[in-house]
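In the current project phase, the collection of sequences with tokenised folds has grown. A representative record is quoted in full directly below:
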Amino acid sequence: MSGRLVREGYTGTGPGAITPDGCAVELYRRLSVGEEPDVIQAAVPAGASILELGCGAGRVTRPLVSRGFTVTAVDESAEMLEHISGARTVQSPIESLDLGEERFDVVMLASFLVHAPEHRVRDGMLRVCRAHVADGGCVLIQREGVAHRSDLPWERQDAGGCTIRIVSAEPVGDGVRSVHAEYVFDDARWTQTFLSRELSREEFEGRLAAAGLTVDRYLTDDGTWVRALPA
């Protein structure tokens, strides 16, 4: 698969390989991890087995492994998976993942992937979460914050030295927005354009219910991280 292939509505520019959804592998190798490992660790048992869906280049995988979790890292990009260490890797689209009878203490769907523009893709992702979580386990999902779709443009500084800007989020129909982001380091610049479907809390919880999941609690004050349980 060529690093320059992209899906319709998704583009990426900048040095190195670009995945089909417009993500730059080298960019995701450089970005620092934020609060995600702390949020995850506080919400799950110590030493839990974690199925990380959409692991990318391992930004979150590495700190989870270092904290004693057993991680199975899933991504559709072979180029991303090349940079994973300390975890088992599986190359697969999330929505079609099938690990048979294998179940995990924790299934994690981060990076706002629940906002996939196609209903079948998002609902497929949530069904995969439900199918692979153990009885008594939990599913951790990251949702977009309000800032990602209002008060644009906005920017923040990544601890790794990158200025991250959400430049625009233009409606393209049926509740979907085309989001344009820029990532600027002193020595390199990347852009990504991707599609995102806005989900109200009611819509989000309804989609979870349809997949056999129910919200246990919202883990962060802004409601972006959610702990769900098998219904």
